[in-house]
Amino acid sequence: MIAALSKEPHSIKPLCKLFRIPRNSYHYRLKNRGIVTSEKALLRQKVVDIHSRSRGSAGARTIAGQLTQEGENVGRYKAASLMKELDIISKQPNKHKYKISEDVSKIAPNLLNRKFNVKAPNQVWCGDVTYVWAGNKWLYLAAVMDLFARRIVGWACSDSPNSDLTTAALRMAYESRGRPQNVMFHSDQGCHYTSFQFRQTLWKYQLTQSMSRRGNCWDNAPMERFFRSFKTEWMPKECYNNYAEAERDTLKYILQHYNTKRGHSYNNYLSPVMMEAAA
């Protein structure tokens, strides 16, 4: 220890005195830095697991939030440090600029009006349709989200973006949630939501229709965010080889990752299923 002290930089002694740190503590830290304890090794493995489950999309905030839910006292900056040590990075989607419009639907008013914070399940559902390339044709996915915990409660896949598709997703939501009453259903002004077939189904289930302003994606932001997460976090960059593969992987994302495992910042990093269970 005496030899070590004699070789220490001249600035260490006044610094230790300034911050009231024993000099032997400094040398202990210097001697043991880089040593990975079993506890840290386990924590590192948890970070790798969370990052792997998200297919490389989880960043420091998400990892810290999910580690906290698992009982680990880890903040954002510590999570970032662990990611740096493990040489893993988060896939970040490119930013898009959207043209904003104020055109109100003639079919239904914008009753939701961006009031996305909902106090209980089955008060407000949102719906939307997206598409992915499936080898030799498009797969269209219609999804219905319960805004309370951002849980996907209805979905359907098809090779045609028509009213049969959106009606099937709505029917699944209605039946799987126990045929609730007094639910608002919000969507964009796509023809598969303004059609007589879809509106008749809403009337049959006694759901109140609400619609975004035309071309205004922010009026249905939670659904836009869900589809963006699916495409940037989960979908392979080279797309899918065929329709069956695309459909299977899409349902895997909803059932085995997004609803059940993916921590959502809106839910304080609980998954939608866990958030509903805790309510």
UniProtKB/TrEMBL annotation:
Task: Tell me where the transmembrane regions lie.
Answer: none
Check the record and name the InterPro entries matching this protein: HTH-like_dom, Integrase_cat-core, RNaseH-like_sf, RNaseH_sf, Transpos_IS3, Transposase_IS3/IS150/IS904
Tell me the GO BP annotations in alphabetical order: DNA integration
**Superkingdom, taxonomy of origin:** Bacteria
As recorded in UniProt, coiled-coil segments are: none
Per the UniProt record, one Pfam family is HTH_21
- Indicate the segments forming the Integrase catalytic domain, all copies: 117-279
Q: Name one GO molecular function term.
A: nucleic acid binding
The entry's protein name is: Integrase core domain protein
The organism of origin for this protein: Photobacterium andalusiense
